[in-house]
Structures are given as C-alpha cells and as structure tokens.
Amino acid sequence: MQNVTPIILSNSVDIKRGGLTKAIFTRANTLVAKYKRVIILTLSFQQNHQEIIEEIYNKGLLSRNVEVHNMFEDLNTDKKYNKKNRITKTGKAKGYTVFKDTKQKEYPSYRYYSNGLYVMYKRFNQDESLQFIDYMSEARHRTKREEYNQQGYVTRISHMDIVKNKPRLHRYFDNKGKCYASVWADPNTGKTGRVNLHGKSPKEFKTMEQLKKYWIENKLKKIKQPVIMTDKRDMDWLALKLKHNNLKRVAVIHNNHFNKPFDNTAEVKENYKVLFDNLDNFDKVVFLTQEQKDDVKRLFGERGNLVVIPHPAKQVNKNEQNMSIDDFNPYKAVTLARYEKQKRLDQSIKAFKIVVENIPSAEYHIYGFGKEEGNLHNLIKDLKLQDNVKLRGYAEDVSAVYKSAACSILTSDYEGFGMVLAESLVNGTPAVTYDSKYGPYDIVRDGIDGYVVAKGDIEELADKVIKIMDSKSLRDDLSKNALEVGKRFSRKDYSNCWLSLLNDI
User: Fold this and answer.
1) pTM for this structure?
2) How many CA atoms within 13 Å lie on the side-chain side of 447?
3) Residue 319: which pLDDT band, with cuts at 50, 70 and 90?
C-alpha cells in the first residue's frame, strides 16, 4: 500500500480557499502521513505561484511534505534572474501625466497619459509591487497586457483582439525575458488553441489539452504506482487519456450533478457526462453523501466501484467547545460562502429582513468573496439593512466566526456536502439550512442541532433563526448537541476510509 503515490489534479490552489481547495488540502494532509509521496499537480498559470505555495505552507494549510508542481513553472526551465529586466516598485513615471483610478479600492491603480493620449494602465499589489501594465492604442483599444511576479519580472504578455478586448495570444517568459511558451486563444470563447514550446527542444501541440497530457505523463514516468485523483469534472477526460502501465483513477464528486432545479426531476449536467459515461473506467468514484450515490445508482445502475467518504469535521479542544457554547452574540447569524448565485445569498438576506422586523438589533455577517458582491451590496441597500447585514470578505479564522454567532445560515440551491454545516456544528453553532441536495440531511439533525427547512421557504428560514435568537436555553441545547458532529464525521474515520480505498484498488 505504501508504494502507491496519490496524485491530485487541480487547476490551481490559493490562499483564499473555497470548499473544494479545503477538501484537497485535507485529503493531501491526511494521506501524506501514510505515504512516502503525495503530489498535487496544478495546470493553470499563476502569476505568483511560488509565493502562493510558500504562503500556503507557512500558514500550515498544507504539509510541506505534500509536493505541489505547476505545469507553467515546470515548463519555465531557466529561473535565473536578469536584473536588467526587473521593473522597480513605483507608480510614478517620468514624462507622463498620472491619474489614480479611484474606483479600484483593493489595489493601487493608475492611468498614464502622454501628450494627451491615454497610453498605459498600471495596477500594483498592496506591497507596491507591480501586478500588470495594460498598453493602449491611440483609439484607446487595449493592445496587450504585461503581468509581473512580485520580484518585478514579466511572466506573461497577452496580446489583445482590439474589437473583443480579449486575448488572442499569450506568451510566457522566464526571468531572463525569454519566451518559453506561446498559446493561441479564441477571443470569442476564451478557449485556448495551438501551443508552442520554445527553447532547446521546441514542441508544438494542437491544443492545450495535449500539452497537459504530455506534461502529466512526463511527471508519471518515474512513479511506479500512481493514483490520479480528479476533483473537478473538467479533469475527468484528462485522467482517462493518460497512459501508464500501473495507473489507477479515482474521481471525487464535490457537487450536485443535476441541472436546475438540481434534483431528480432534472437532466444530468453536461460536464458530468464524461464521468458517468465512463464509470467503469474509474477504479473508484467517491461521493460525499449516501443520497447522491443512491441517485447515481438509480440512473446508471449498481457498480462495485462507487463509495461514500464524507468530509471530516475539524476537531476542536474542550476549551474551544466551552467558548463556543457561552461566548457568542445571541442576536448574530453568520454565513461563510462564495458570493455566487449557487449560494442564493439573496434569499438569506431577504429572510433576514423578516428577522430584523422581529428583532431590530439582529445582525447578519456574510463572509466570502465572488462576483455577486456588488449585487448583494445593492440588495442590502434596497432592503435598508445596512445597519444589520454586513459583507465581511474572506474569513481567515473560521472557528472564531462561528463561535461569535447564535447560528449559521445556508441557503444554497445545491451542494455536494455542505462542509460549512459541519464546520458550524463542530464549533457549537447551530445551523439553519435549506434541504438542498446534497448534505443538509446528512449533517444537520432537524430540531437537535439545527433546523432543515424546505428550499426557498424564506419565511420558515427566518422563523427558525428568530426561534434560536429568542431562546438562550434552546440555543444552548442545540449547541451542545452540535458538538457531536465531531464523532459522527471524525478525522479518524475519514483517514481509514481513504486508506482502505487506496488499499483496495
């Protein structure tokens, strides 16, 4: 069993983690305690990949014994610096009229004019290192973007289609300023096309998919018994095409596989069809809930390679447990979720309007990030909830957030497990959740450690939140029961399930 090498495929990993990245880190950290090598292979370009991985290690999010390899970092074979190519850390530029972009709040950004013409746009990180430069034509069309790492060296130049304002060609550079790869792109769809590798042994690939296959197979050459794990459905086709005499394949399903309304009445999502059409070609297919496994069995029949391994609930010590029961704001609710349509945060905010009408001092803090942030701000303003509902951004200390609240809220249209529910309960915070597929009924025991209400029932959702906030004794009972989730979804059981799976293939 120890000769097996678990390898997790991922597009990227980052500090700001959603549930999928947390799940990958948890599995990697668990397996590295038992196996000589555990590897994460990432396939997307990241401007500051090395700094990101180092920060992930430093924060203890991922064991340093877990190897992380990135395709673009590997293709960049010459990492020596040429200081002549370095851009200094400054927003100033001689000979230009400079205006600050006041709409960009997070990063310092400036527009540069030369003799009345808008010629450049620069964005900087908080440490004043340069993020990118956009170059403009006389007609104010963006012609190219130069991206820089934190050391001040250009890493990628994207050449733009002046009509679509989208990339047509990406060129990737080493620290000496030499292009090691060029990738063509369709400005209409964003999809990549032909790829050229430059240098001593030039190679050409018709598609980015061919390059990914080539790179991964090279990484597998020196590994005797690799087990490739796919956690996103766009990786399944890649796992199926890889060639290796002893390769094993494991697919892990993290999300609902149905189209809207995300239940048994709907068709299967298009991006799941590669997996479901090839169930027998994967050695194991892992579900997070028994309910989802049963739904797939009803659609595609019984198979011996379908298994259930729920996420573990992070254990907390007794001192933390006592704090979670007694040290909280009885009129505060929280949600940790990406600001995405899937999470239906608009419904939780509308429900909280009812809560505030009954408890004027009630607060609702939403932690996360995503493209729906502006819409959520507008909704909060429209409902005149600015004093009660706050968007707090990404939460570093998840346990502290849950411990501060009377309850947590989850209103997702769909989930794969609902890891935030387990995180809430393990910190002694009752959860009020929609009965979305999948996870809520597996995790929350209705009336025991929280409440499960019908999806879309805003009034019932608000009623349960009010009920918890109105009764300290009820909240205390729910909180004490919630702590049992640590036994129901233990780290030990999780570890044993994964070790058994790998021993069985």
Assistant:
1) 0.88
2) 0
3) very low
